[in-house]
Amino acid sequence: MRCRVCNERAGWFRRQCAPCATLWSVYEKHRGLPLHALLPLFEGSGASVEEVRRFLAGDPDGDGAVQDRIAADMANQLFAAFGGTPGGQTAEQVRRLRARGAWKTFGERPD
Ligand SMILES: [Zn+2]
Q1: 64-85 residues labelled b (16+ CB within 10 A) or e (exposed)
Q2: DSSP 2-59
Q3: How far is the CA of 106 from the centre of ligand 1 (A)?
Q4: What whole-number distance in Å separates Cα of residue 3 and Cα of residue 9?
Q5: CA of 63 to the centre of ligand 1 (A)
Q6: How far is Cα 66 from Cα 56, in angstroms, rounded to an integer?
Q7: What is the pLDDT along the chain (111 residues), one digit of tens a residue?
């Protein structure tokens, strides 16, 4: 069979070749990391630069090329970081700290 990701020979009864299967598991494990952080992990898995390049351009299940998924993951993380969640917990913690600080200095003369 042909590899569904890179279209190279995958071997009998295999949907992915060995390098793509390894690279995919690295991607799944570290999903959300930016590409520059993923690349050393991909190369550290033992795949060649060419195998990594084919993997990134490949589309294992029709949902888009792996490199586009990585970009989308990064965008989603950025969105979450800047947009926060409704009723953001971090903002609430900051607000509480600020309120406690004001309580401590209550009744003291401002500098
Ligand atoms: Zn492959």
Answers
A1: eebbebbeebbeeeeeeeeeee
A2: B-TTT-SB--TT-SS-HHHHHHHHHHHHTTT--HHHHHHHHHHTT--HHHHHHHHH--
A3: 66
A4: 6
A5: 16
A6: 5
A7: 899 999 999 988 889 999 999 999 999 999 888 889 999 999 999 999 999 999 999 998 888 889 888 887 777 777 777 776 543 445 455 456 556 665 445 455 655
- d(CA 70, ligand 1 centre) in Å: 17
Q: How far is the CA of 17 from the centre of ligand 1 (A)?
A: 4
- Total-model pTM: 0.69
